[in-house]
Amino acid sequence: MRKFLLSRGGRGSKTSLPFQPTVQQTVSGSSALLQASRNGYLSQVKYLVEERHVDPHSCEDEAKLSPLHFASAFGRLDIVRYLVEERNCHTECRNKFGSTPLHLAAVGGRLGTVKYLINEGGCDPMCRGRNGWTPLHCACESGRLDMVKYLIEEKDVNSSCQNGNGGTPLHVAAQHAPLEVVKYLIEEQRCDDSVRSTLGSLPIHAAALGGRLDTVKYLINERGCDPMCRGRNGWTPLHCACKGGRLDTVKYLIEEKNVDSSCQAKDGILPLHIASSNGHLPVVKLLVEDYHCNPGVKDKSGTTPGELAQRKGHVEISSYLSSMEKAVPSEASPSFIPEDTSLLRESEDASHEEVEERLTKPISSVPKVEIISA
């Protein structure tokens, strides 16, 4: 959700200069109203609504976002007040995804707007979107500790409420929020870090997926979470880190926590399969070159990481893995297969170095050795 907002110029967007719309520059008055609401131009909002008679309830955005949704998401409190108090806009209106203005204000980190919508707009602090998310889940995604505290301590929102997938606010915070939010939920609100979602995921899986390395370390080193714990599909935190392309987390789990770089999930899926399928070339190279993962390894369906990458359109990864497969000798064809196993029976005087030398020479160059009878 936050990614969706940022793509439209929200807090943290790289677009620092807002577009100031005019009626002539837009396709319709309603789209101009949406832009004015997003960018905080109250005078333009009033002009469009009062003089051009644009419906303040109109939704022309693909996600069915109203002017109130936009104003709430970007913290335009003066516009929110105008739309609610003077234009009677409904504070419980929902977009395509079932989110209310309160959900968007929370995910956007707009504490002042959240307080207004609850205290003066009559919004339910426990209202749920179509996916079961509450404003607290959204606040945890925004990473705003002050908002999380406000909803829990002042509005009595259940700190362990679950969304439609069984995910708790702690799951969301572990993936998206700074460590301080995670610690607040666990240490002050006594949220259980062993609670699983309906998919069997723990907060540590979410932290690995989100690349929150400090949270991963905290959960393992201070909370005692198993770095090899598995979800219902057999995924470990390493699988999750590979899905998210989290290079530092991958290194930490393998190098410091001794997680097997080729650990299998259900159906024989390895971390290399996951990284390849999701298009993370740096992680793929790390697994193959640093941790010597087999580039041609197959899952239970007989699919290699390169084939998965090709199916997903990750051409560079597919080509890289293909070239690495050719560089790795086939396990089925070792360089030296002795015709007579008696060649492996050396005298007691044979040194380790001599045995190694004989095993690595071509058959034609191996000197005759005395066969020792049983």
Number of helices: 20
> What assembly state would you assign to the polypeptide chains in this entry?
single chain
CATH architecture of the domain at 1-10 and 19-97 and 106-122: Alpha Horseshoe
Overall pLDDT score: 84
Question: Strand share of the residues?
Answer: under 5%
CATH class of the domain at 1-10 and 19-97 and 106-122: Mainly Alpha
The number of distinct β-strands equals 0
Largest sheet: none
| Radius of gyration, taken over Cα atoms and rounded to an integer in Å | 29 Å
Structural class: mainly alpha
Shape field: globular
CATH superfamily of the domain at 1-10 and 19-97 and 106-122: Ankyrin repeat-containing domain
> Low-confidence parts, pLDDT < 50 over ≥5 residues?
4-27, 331-374
State the order of secondary-structure elements, H for helix, E for strand.
Answer: HHHHHHHHHHHHHHHHHHHH
Structure description:
Keywords: ANK repeat, Repeat. ANK repeats lie at residues 97-121, 131-153, 165-187, 233-255, 267-289. It holds the Pfam family Ank_2. Residues 329-361 are annotated as: Disordered. This is Espin. The protein has 374 residues and is an all-alpha fold. Among the domains are: 1-10 and 19-97 and 106-122, Ankyrin repeat-containing domain (Serine Threonine Protein Phosphatase 5, Tetratricopeptide repeat, Alpha Horseshoe), CATH 1.25.40.20; 124-225, Ankyrin repeat-containing domain (Serine Threonine Protein Phosphatase 5, Tetratricopeptide repeat, Alpha Horseshoe), CATH 1.25.40.20. The chain contains 20 helices and no strands. The protein has helices spanning 2-6, 29-39, 42-51, 67-73, 77-86, 101-107, 111-119, 135-142, 145-154, 169-176, 179-188, 203-210, 213-222, 237-244, 247-256, 271-277, 281-290, 305-311, 315-327, 352-360. The chain is globular, with a radius of gyration of 29 Å. The N and C termini lie far apart (74 Å). Residues 4-27 and 331-374 have low confidence and may be disordered.
